[in-house]
Design goal:
mainly alpha; two-stranded antiparallel sheet; 80% helix; 1% strand; globular
């Protein structure tokens, strides 16, 4: 029997290692293709070797973004079983790439929002290129490590840490804009707290207006269209503000009645959101009314009404991520490309289409090959999600970014999404707190009763055994008491075990929370240290 078990384990291990080799092989093929393309298209340009190696690092970085960062967009939908893993990856691949190509920024601040002062490089292009290469590779290595540890971390913070570390290594601590770094540190708290509060608020509203009602289906008919309409407003506003900046002038040209602005304002985005929300409200109202005749008055039926909106949310979050974060993530590669092509250093750089392609395709490859690990972590290993909870997390992701952008608060999409998951989990704990207290009190009473009974048996036994003369009945009673004491001791053990397990019931896994928060806090310094070491290594080899 044991031999068969060992053989099964060996087969499973061989199969798993075979799949791992295939994944690594496909990843290497993509990276090699990027390297070859970069060399072949820049053969007559000085420093083209640096650009080719940077492109290789960019491809590696993009795959790590796909493996880690995209999980936040589709993880809740997978965890709630609104989407299968295959369906989620397909949607994310299509919409991430679509967002990058259709609405990705054509101009990006390559030095990451003023993290370092490029004037400190003194016009030394080589030094700048080495620093950006170090930043890119360091961010990718940190993301790779975080993915292995199943910790969702911020891509933006990884890049920021990489740029900061390489900048310090190249020109000293004075190069860093410490005010900006302070804002980034503030986002470690602001992002998850805002995301958690908004997600918990929406889930509580759904529970109060639908789940806790005696007649859930009539309540669902009234409230589900409202919640989906709010989601529609949030996502249209979010996408207009964050995802359509590049194509907005073209949209203004096509649609004559829009204000002639370089980028959409909050008022314009919000009005567009309201128009779409009203249309969606009537569509969903009609759809829920038709479906209500086949629904039962239970939680499962209510959950099913949020499935399709949740799938749309996953797609829209992926599109916005592709449009907004991909360009930021490949910023250092764009900076290197600009420095190599122009022979100088600029605070802004056009992103060539091939660089955007490296980011978009790399994310798709990384997501398809290594995304499932983090998708499972986000979707099911922090807390249990159903469609209502996942819907609340998606709402938090969109609304938090809108609020933060209007208030000028620094936020991270990764921290918002994971904070939203924390929020719905802790809300469940809070709501069930009173029931849990009642269970604990009941278990304590049972334990006390069993302990009193055991004490009484011991007392009776001691009394009988203390008699100088014992009759036949006394000996029979002693035998029975020993048996009863053994049984009662077992009951006391069971009661203690039951009380202990009741007191340990938590909806949010504390170990996961500790690990993720630790990874968030050390992302910037860890990426900075790795980047500085890589910079010194490159400088030592190339001078």
């Amino acid at each position: 029997m044991e031999i068969q078990t060992v053989k099964k384990m060996q087969k499973k291990a061989i199969k798993s290692s075979g799949v791992d080799f295939i994944k690594i092989g496909l990843a290497l093929v993509f990276m090699a293709a990027v390297l070859v393309y970069s060399f072949s298209t820049t053969g007559d340009i000085p420093n083209n070797t640096f650009l080719a190696i940077a492109a290789l690092f960019g491809a590696y970085m993009a795959m790590n973004i796909g493996a880690n960062d995209v999980a936040n967009n589709v993880g809740p939908a997978v965890g709630s079983k609104a989407l299968t893993m295959g369906g989620a990856i397909t949607i994310a691949v299509i919409f991430e790439a679509g967002g990058a190509f259709i609405a990705g920024g054509d101009v990006v601040k390559t030095i990451k929002k003023g993290i370092i002062d490029i004037g400190a490089f003194g016009g030394n292009t080589d030094l700048f290129i080495w620093a950006m290469m170090a930043a890119l590779l360091a961010a990718a290595l940190w993301l790779n490590f975080a993915t292995m540890m199943k910790a969702p971390v911020s891509t933006t913070h990884s890049i920021v840490g990489g740029v900061m570390g390489a900048g310090i290594a190249a020109a000293g601590f004075s190069i860093v804009a410490w005010g900006t770094m302070g804002k980034i540190a503030a986002s470690w708290v602001i992002s998850p707290v805002l995301g958690g509060l908004i997600a918990a608020g929406f889930l509580f509203a759904i529970k109060k207006t639908i789940v806790f009602q005696e007649d859930r289906i009539p309540a669902a008919k009234k409230w589900v269209p409202i919640y989906v309409a709010i989601m529609s407003w949030a996502f249209v506003t979010y996408l207009t503000l964050k995802g359509l900046k590049k194509v907005w002038p073209t949209i203004v040209d096509v649609v004559g009645f829009l204000p002639d602005e370089k980028k959409p304002s909050f008022i314009v985005a919000s009005i567009l959101g309201i128009i779409v929300a009203l249309i969606i409200y009537f569509i969903v109202k009609q759809s829920v009314s038709k479906a209500s005749s086949t629904l039962e008055n239970n939680r499962k039926s209510v959950n099913s009404l949020f499935t399709i909106p949740l799938i749309f949310a996953a797609a829209l979050l992926s599109f916005a991520h592709g449009a907004n974060d991909v360009a930021n993530a490949i910023g250092p590669l764009a900076a290197i490309s600009d420095a190599v092509m122009s022979g100088g250093i600029s605070s802004k750089a056009e992103i060539p289409i091939w660089v955007m392609a490296v980011g978009a395709i790399g994310i798709a490859v990384g997501l398809a090959l290594y995304g499932p690990k983090l998708i499972r972590t986000v979707g099911s290993e922090i807390t249990e999600l159903d469609q209502m909870r996942a819907f609340s997390v998606a709402m938090a992701a969109a609304i938090t970014v809108i609020i933060a952008s209007q208030l000028g608060l620094p936020v991270s999409s990764t921290h918002i999404a994971v904070g939203g998951i924390f929020g719905v989990g802790f809300l469940r704990e809070w709501l069930d707190n009173y029931d849990e207290k009642a269970i604990i009190e009941s278990e304590k009473e049972i334990l006390e009763d069993e302990e009193r009974t055991l004490k009484a048996y011991h007392g009776e036994l001691e009394t009988i055994e203390a008699k100088e003369k014992k009759g036949k009945e006394d000996y029979k009673r002693i035998v029975n008491l020993y048996k009863m004491i053994d049984d009662e001791e077992d009951k006391v053990k069971e009661a203690k075990k039951a009380l202990k397990s009741t007191e340990k019931i938590k909806y949010v896994k504390r170990e996961a929370v500790k690990k993720i928060i630790a990874a968030w806090v050390i992302t910037v310094p860890a990426a900075a240290i790795i980047s500085a070491l890589i910079f010194f290594m490159l400088k030592g080899m190339l001078i």
